[in-house]
């Protein structure tokens, strides 16, 4: 038997075991893993490319559908809320649009209030508001269509100022000191608006902003209680947009056509008002080039103009005089400091001005403390020889003085 060199060199008596020959693969384990992964990706990619499911690979949510539910089942159909149409018109005759929440910032106190208004739907289209015949006490002759809904207009010599003025003994008002009270910021917050409508006498004038869920319905309720009403138009303050009156605010930087278009938007939100007033707007009412077209438009439509008196540099009075339109300016901000003591002091000041000048106008918000103190104060006016009158009567008396 032939011996190998290894066997000849082995120690005597020991025979080395023959080593097994290992099988060598043409690739390593890591390379094999990479090949498997590549094969998986090729297969997955091919499936994604040629699959008929367009949402393949997207997350899937499965929803159980109760086929036995009836159409009027509350679980099968979302509950709808009553609407407001949006920045207008009388009650919407068609289904509501989307709703948007805005923040109204009180210019004097800085208080913020979240308000839901409509932003879509049919009220943005001409003629989409309720027909005039459905608006109690509103003369259809004093309405015309705009692209936002109906807005006031003068017709056959009849003015909204005259048609919607509250009843008053104007002969008596001409002989004795008179005061008018304007409660502003209404329409935003139904509860406080209803408090003002129901707890204050009809001679108190109520001013509505164009916002809120249903300003038309609240305005109609106010007029049903024989209050005369104003429309407050949001105007630009000096610190706009940090202090934002709301959507469709009239801006001093916009052209006349744009601001008048926005004015029409506000005008269509409710009807039956005797005139318009500013809602905030210290910068706007002090800018003659911006204010002039608004005053002209209001005068042309037979409306009065009210300035709340908060902006010392306001040009509203001179512009209204130039158009010979009814005008009044707030003399005393009754609840600038909303405490009982300060409100009573402001009302005493209003009395003094009325006796001194013959007529005076106070402004206030619908805070509970304001409604309470003003209501109590009004009850004692007769014995003081002072007459409470609607704002339109104060305007006419001021013009005759």
What does this molecule look like?
Helix content is 33%, strand content 16%. It contains 13 helices and 13 strands. Strands 5, 6, 7, 8, 9, 10, 11, 12 and 13 form a nine-stranded parallel β-sheet that branches. A two-stranded antiparallel ribbon has the order 1-2. A hairpin with a 2-residue loop joins strand 3 and strand 4 (149-152). Helix 5 runs parallel beside helix 12, helix 7 (256-267) packs across helix 9 (288-300) and helix 11 crosses helix 12 (368-379). It starts with a helix and ends with a helix.
Give a quick rundown of the structure.
The protein is an alpha/beta fold and about 400 residues long.
Number of helices: 13
- Count of individual beta strands: 13
The gross shape turns out to be: elongated
- Report mean pLDDT, rounded to a whole number: 80
Which spans of ≥5 residues are poorly predicted at pLDDT below 50?
51-99, 118-133
Helices and strands: which structural class?
A: alpha/beta
Please indicate the percent range of residues in DSSP E strands (runs of 2 or more): 15-25%
Q: What Rg is obtained from the alpha carbons, in whole angstroms? A: 38 Å
State the order of secondary-structure elements, H for helix, E for strand: HHEEEEHHEHEHEHEHHEHEEHEHEH
Straight-line distance between termini: 149 Å
Reported for the largest beta sheet, the result is: 9 strands, parallel
Please estimate the helix content.
25-40%
């Amino acid at each position: 038997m032939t011996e190998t060199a290894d066997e000849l060199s082995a120690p005597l008596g020991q025979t080395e075991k023959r080593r097994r020959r290992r099988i060598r693969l043409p690739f390593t384990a890591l390379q094999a893993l990479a090949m498997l992964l590549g094969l998986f990706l090729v297969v997955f990619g091919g499936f994604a490319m040629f699959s008929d499911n367009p949402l393949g690979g997207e997350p899937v949510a499965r929803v159980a559908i109760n086929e036995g539910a009836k159409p009027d089942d509350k679980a099968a159909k979302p509950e709808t809320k009553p609407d407001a149409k949006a920045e207008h018109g009388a009650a919407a005759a068609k289904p509501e649009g989307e709703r948007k929440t805005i923040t109204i910032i009180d210019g004097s106190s800085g208080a913020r209030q979240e308000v839901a208004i409509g932003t879509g739907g049919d009220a943005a289209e001409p003629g989409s508001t309720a027909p005039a015949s459905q608006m109690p006490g509103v003369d259809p002759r004093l309405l015309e269509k705009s692209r936002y809904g109906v807005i006031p207009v003068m017709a056959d010599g009849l003015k909204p100022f005259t048609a919607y003025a509250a009843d008053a003994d104007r002969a008596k008002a001409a002989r004795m000191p008179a005061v008018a009270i304007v409660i502003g910021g209404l329409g935003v917050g139904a509860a406080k608006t209803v408090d003002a409508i129901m707890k204050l006498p009809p001679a108190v004038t109520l001013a509505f902003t164009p916002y809120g869920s249903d300003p038309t319905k609240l305005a109609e309720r106010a007029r049903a209680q024989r209050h005369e009403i104003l429309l407050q138009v949001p105007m630009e303050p000096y610190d706009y947009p940090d202090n934002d009156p709301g959507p469709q605010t009239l801006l001093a930087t916009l052209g006349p056509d744009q601001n008048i278009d926005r004015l029409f938007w506000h005008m269509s939100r409710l009807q039956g008002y005797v005139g318009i007033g500013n809602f905030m707007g210290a910068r706007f009412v002090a800018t003659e080039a911006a204010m002039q077209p608004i005053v002209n438009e209001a005068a042309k439509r037979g409306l009065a103009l009210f300035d709340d008196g908060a902006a010392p540099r306001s040009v509203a009075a001179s512009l209204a005089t130039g158009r010979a339109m009814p005008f009044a300016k707030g003399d005393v901000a009754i609840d600038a400091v909303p405490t009982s003591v300060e409100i009573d002091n402001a009302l005493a000041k209003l009395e003094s001005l009325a006796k001194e000048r013959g007529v005076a106008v106070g402004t206030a918000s619908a805070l509970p403390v304001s409604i309470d103190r003003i209501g109590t104060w009004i009850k004692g006016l007769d014995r003081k020889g002072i007459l409470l009158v609607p704002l339109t009567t104060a305007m006419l008396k001021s013009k005759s003085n």
